[in-house]
Amino acid sequence: DAGVIQSPRHEVTEMGQEVTLRCKPISGHDYLFWYRQTMMRGLELLIYFNNNVPIDDSGMPEDRFSAKMPNASFSTLKIQPSEPRDSAVYFCASSLRLVSGANVLTFGAGSRLTVL
Amino acid sequence: QKEVEQDPGPLSVPEGAIVSLNCTYSNSAFQYFMWYRQYSRKGPELLMYTYSSGNKEDGRFTAQVDKSSKYISLFIRDSQPSDSATYLCAGLKQGAQKLVFGQGTRLTINP
Description:
The complex is a heterodimer.
Chain A: E1 5-7, E2 10-13, E3 19-24, E4 31-38, E5 42-50, E6 53-56, E7 65-71, E8 74-79, E9 88-97, E10 103-107, E11 111-115
Parallel strand pairs in A: 2-11
Antiparallel strand pairs in A: 1-3, 3-8, 4-5, 4-9, 5-6, 7-8, 9-10, 9-11
Chain B: E1 4-6, E2 11-14, E3 19-25, E4 30-38, E5 45-51, E6 54-58, E7 61-66, E8 71-76, E9 85-93, E10 100-101, E11 105-110
Parallel strand pairs in B: 2-11
Antiparallel strand pairs in B: 1-3, 3-8, 4-5, 4-9, 6-7, 7-8, 9-10, 9-11
């Protein structure tokens, strides 16, 4: 398996522009997570899906952020309009619940966003 | 107060040293504790996880959880330059999906 695939790897945009980040989870995984990582705040959960349905979006910073999962093999995180404080590395992760009960996440390589 | 606290470091040690990385947590409901390793410009990857209190060993790595003091540790024996990375601890409640991460500790092993 190719793992969790994210695109683009790097994005530089100007304030006010729309940004769309994409994720392809591992086939067969039924959970998908979007995290944001910054030096100041570390790794923060934004939203997660189970079987393509959003379960918890309490980490989404504000209405400028939206996420969708139209099918089991694709998800997007959109920021509109983007602001400089959105600059961060955005990670997508997918998981399959283990028999033991633990939920072990596999992360993608991340999308590094810079908003000027 | 963050649910999982971790000293961001940086921590620099000579090759071959024993490394101790530590976290504290505040949520008593956490039952699973995980350590992820993140190389520069890569995504975090699971190193190991433990359930409840106790120790777990995997090669040169040992994870330790003390629920009475809400303390999580990762020990690396015979550290290698390839162990240089950021190490993130995380807690998870039973039956839950939201993994809560610490800030991460940046570790450098000097040859």
